Amino acid sequence: MVRITEASQAYSFSRRAIVLGAMQGGVALVLAGRMAWLSVFENERYRLMAESNRVNLTLTPPRRGWIVDRNNIPIANNRTDFRVDIIPDRLENREQVLATLQQILRLTPEDMARIQVDLKRAAGFQPVQVIENLDWDRFAAVSVRLPELPGVAPTRGFARNYPLGAGVGHLVGYVGTASAEQFKKDKDPLLVTPGFKLGKDGIEKMLEDDLRGTPGAKRVEVTAHGRLVRELATRPDEPGKNVKLTIDALLQEYVARRLGTNSGSATVIDCTTGDILAMVSMPAYDPNSFSDGISQSEWKMLSEDDHVPLMNKVLQGLYPPGSTVKPMNGLALMQAGVDPNMRINCSGALRVGNGVFHCHRRRGHGPLDLKNAIMQSCDIYFYEMVRRVGYDAIAPVARNLGLGQKFDLPFSTQRYGTVPDSEWKLKRYKEKWTVADSLNASIGQGYVLTNPLQLAVMASRLASGRALIPRLLADAPRQEAAALGSTPEQLAIIRDAMFGVVNSGGTGGASRIQVPGVTLAAKTGTAQVRRITMAERRSGVLGNASLPFKLRDHALFVCFAPADNPKYAAGIVLEHNGHTVRNLDTPMIGRDIMTFLFDRDRAIKSLREVEPTWGGDYNQRAEAQAKAFKAAQAAPPPPAPEDAEEAASHVASAAANATTSNTIDSEAAARGSVEGD
């Protein structure tokens, strides 16, 4: 039996006390260390977290930088935007306030449903957009009734504005709200800030980083439950950078108007610098409509229009260049050793193997040298000469003059067509190049495809004798243009021939300019979009006026002026124009565009005389088209054709229109005989 003495009990108690004290001391040290860590080393972190819980940041959209022309005329700027938001935390009697707003602002049921959803998702201090782009009357009506509309916040902000409307639609693009995919990708809270819009197309999209600017911010103090306590200091936004283009805004607007009712495009280039002075694709969408939020009806109208207003034809349209390449081909022939004085007899047709290749002049032109072959646009001359030298001798010159070339411009999409040769065909189709391929390519048909910008570049290089690089951004450095691989004498022959096209009895006499002391040099062109059979030739080729729109020939035109000292060059392509209306055809359009560059008053006076016959300018025609489209949509559908033959006719007509697209694909290009211009 163990005896427990008083001494042993005292010892045991002391030992336990020491252990317990050590443990307590250790815990105290840990707590003290943790408190020191939190108060010293983590102080900033928790201070920021506490501040974040107490203060919330609301972003305000930055003003976008302006897009201006070479003379600082605004092409895209910002206008005052009246809008109405709701601050959910301040909202009282929600249903009554929303009902009052619906009445004052004439909100649709769709608007009300969206607002309800946004209110459920928004934080208490985060504004919810009710409506934007308000007129002053409705904005004022809300402002005077604010005492009975707690939580409603009328705001003056900024919205994108395009003074020239559709005249610059494809040039600058448009802005719009960010998509859900963009927000998921970037996680930038600015993208979901009411009133913020970013570039969606064209220059607005490609130069978004420069144009966007830095958002402003408004700090508000809130409770732990997110209730607003008071507003704190605000930080103003910083506007984006201005972007200056080489475009001449007045010329841009004039060209857009002068294209009239055509589906087409025109590009004007400064022959001394390579600066693009105008880049117009018509018809076009109004970027103001897209920025404000395009309606379903307007979108449907644009997407169903057979003139394709949603496509930038300057860069995305591909066309057989037709006879516009004959001056270039002539230059290539001389470089290949062809004597420009050698004559070829044009009888109206040339048989090659089992095929017959026709000239556009059925009875022929008789004997012609190079200059007169270009002036009269004789197909037989180029058939024969290119057959002799081979198209492989032509293709490098075509590329050197800009065809098939992609240029460094601020656009996301650019189609650059095809300059074919034997190597290209073997790689693409696993077939050898044929004589027929050379003949078709010699008059700008067959596999040859270009976009309108390339044609304008070709004209500028023929005019200047240098490989000019087109430039659109005024602040971008100019690239030095190397000399073309042609002699001055060869270039002089081509320019003289193009002068003769207009001024010495050639095919472009209608484009003769009326400005004293200024002459125009040009080349006309026609590109078929359908194959003409021998049976049709025997019975009589149908005129373009007798054909559906989509089966009519394209009309093309390249030019420069003054002919003796070129300053400006242009390329014009009109889809399915068919040369059916004289003052809407390429020669007179080219003439008037060049007239504007030398005598603006004369050009504007001429335009004002004919524009009313087209239904007004492009804004007036678009307004009339929208009204007609809405009326057609509201009208009852026409009765189905009762007669089977009539029904078949409708189907055949629809199929004919559907099978011919506005952009000619190389696989669909005619390989047989084709007409020139």
Automatic annotation (TrEMBL):
* Gene Ontology cellular component list: plasma membrane
Q: Which SUPFAM superfamilies match?
A: beta-lactamase/transpeptidase-like (SSF56601), Penicillin binding protein dimerisation domain (SSF56519)
Q: Where is the composition biased (Low complexity)?
A: 649-663
Look up the domain of life of the source: Bacteria
For the Penicillin-binding protein transpeptidase domain, which residue ranges apply?
264-582
Keywords associated with the record: Carboxypeptidase, Cell inner membrane, Cell membrane, Cell shape, Cell wall biogenesis/degradation, Hydrolase, Membrane, Peptidoglycan synthesis, Protease, Transmembrane, Transmembrane helix
- Its chief place of residence is membrane
Q: Where in the cell is it found?
A: Cell membrane; Membrane
Q: What is this protein called?
A: Penicillin-binding protein
Give the organism, scientific name: Sphingomonas hengshuiensis
